[in-house]
């Protein structure tokens, strides 16, 4: 809802209203007696130009040009093309504002000026839109299937909505007022805000939904029958299930857990089951019930029968089986040859092969048959006699044996290989290397084999074979091993190589050699008591020695950013490679040290040595911590401050310094902080000061000493306009201390200021009035608060004195009232009432020197304001026009504006236009401007591009880059 300007409720304002009624009533009566008041006539021009509206978030500022004769102004507004609505208040001055006015869309304003009557309405202002209010969000608190919707209320001024939630930030931005989400079980929070071209509202209150999805019904799997009493009940996997519950056997839940099957063991009978899936949010419905019929037949009995028999009579037997009442024996290719409760049966048969199997039976049926087993009835032959020589010298020899009755074949076992011959022959020729070989033999027929004969051994003694040589093709350190394989019956080995003949003879199978770079060839042979083998094939190794690992030397810390990395000399090295700073190899050459320069940080290095054959491994990593202590500042300077005995000590900034310490030779440290200046109050005499720069790593040495010679006398110049009103104060160096701008009837723009003000009179800031000696004057309404003590006859022109509350004959451009009794004509000679203030220890206060001071002509000239980019460095221009900045061409948000003003005010006492130098303590006269590159041309939000800029300069500059009219020209920035 629109908020309008209201007059402050205090006694002075109430008195103003009463006085206005008396004055204008009295003026109306006096008109009957003649034209005694200097009031505007009916032809007075009250036309107004269109006001200008500025919306920032939910704050609206309205500005209009003043009409010289106007007493007050009336206001109308409308939204879009709707009807005009009138404000119930009257407005004074040239601006007003409303705060916390959301949801305004395309609002325009118009105004008209009034005296006793009112002029025409002005044309409409530009249209404005303010930020919307926050919408309310609607959503369920719980959901059981993972899909749900959220919606929010409509905001009339919103063009889109932004939804944040699910710990993902913004999940939706658009014009819709509802959103469907699908999520697994969990807790999800959401909030929404409305946005338009002016910005976004605050977020709505957060609402949370709990998604609790129960699992589906699992499928049950169960056989319809079982024959042994042990069976498995199983079920399918269900999404989201964490456990399952199996109900059955008329016992309720017989299993609860994460498994998807359950083995059951039960006696014969009928058993039913059903299953359901569960998680932390509950359980599904049960599956359909399934039933199994348990009919237990006896188990399979174990059959026992000998594998062979030599006399034709043998026993077939079987084990006892639970639940069995009888057994059935099947065999001899005759079917069931026995049925009864006995567990054995004796059989008599001639030579041959006979198979048997057995099963157990009860009233439910019979088990499966046991595995079939076979018995062979047969007569084996006798044991043959073995013949073999005790020794052999060439590796080829014969093994033979005697003939045995009934044998049809013989089997020879030997050489630790098992049976190496089977057949009807009675001898076998063998060929083997040197060694001991044992043999045994047995006779066989169709019924089997006899026992083996006694074992006999032959010793074969031959020379060893050629060993295999093992040698690397290359070596990098000059020390390597030559080795060879073991050879059977070898007792020693001979190694020939290096063009030296036999360099080793012994039982070892390896030899370590150390040689300089070069090519070396080797061959080896095996020997025993019977002689030596031939040499192996020759193998050659190339020795290529790389240099060793150098030792790295590096300080652990550095205070100036420049340090040396060095390393030791290494034999065979022709160059070195230094790796570091996360850049890979940063140096390659023959030097053994490198100088590095880096900013604050931690830097690691490793080095290796190289030659034509390769490089060594890297040295262990070493790290240096760079912590740059700032350098000493230049000698500080001193200058007069603002007050008796007050001075400013200033010093230059130092790279990497975060704060400075100012020391007085008399008092020690008197300041520590980030500023580059410090104000002091001292007595007359000489005072010495020095400064040093510091950061987290330490402080620099002190600067040269600066000596301040204090006289405790200061000069301040006050500059007035032709009415005697102070409009500017400067110090002895010509620096501007303050500026003031007044409306025609004496209201000071930017707020009231204590001390000498309008036309040289004292300003009473407690009352908001001007003390003019004989009576108080109110610059807001342009009238005195009490009647004229000298009456109409006391004036040179009695007409001017008839209205005893009027100020300066109602013409403040030509008249002043020095004592509050009568107006005096101002001589327009360019001189103003002013003077110079000087104070010292002898005056006990402030003394005025001089009487009339001629106003400086430069104050009346137009100020040559700075244009875009004027005086900026290349770096500042780059930061203001960097397309990769991410903020180029984007408008400032309300939060960014607030942060700018907060930082600016923490560093400055007043607001100052960077273009023209106009100062004021009224923030409403200033805007955040672009110093080097306007936003419309791609300017960034970098701090180098943002400045405090007077509204007049900002509007006048536009996109031309230089203002035609400055704040100084208008004596204000409103």
TrEMBL record:
Xref: Pfam families: TEN_YD-shell
Keyword Ribosomal protein: no
Transmembrane segments: none
SMART domains on file: FN3 (SM00060)
Disordered: region residues: 873-894, 924-974
Amino acid composition bias (Basic and acidic residues), ranges on this chain: 924-947
Residues of the signal peptide: none
Annotated Acidic residues bias: 873-884
Keyword set, alphabetical order: Repeat
PROSITE patterns: FN3 (PS50853)
Domain Fibronectin type-III: 42-136
Protein's name according to its UniProt entry: Fibronectin type-III domain-containing protein
